[in-house]
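Pasting as-is:
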Amino acid sequence: MELVFCGGAGEVGASCCLLRVDGKNILFDSGIRMDSTQDKLPDFRIIQEKGGLDA
């Protein structure tokens, strides 16, 4: 099992967690940034690097 934080660690908003279990990738708690000076979405590139999503 692996838990990957794609956003939200050390900041308010843009939380995004990827759980990897038995070769399956599950995305949960995906939010947006409240600060409009930055991209509102978390960085989803790591999800593709880990093989995409299963759920």
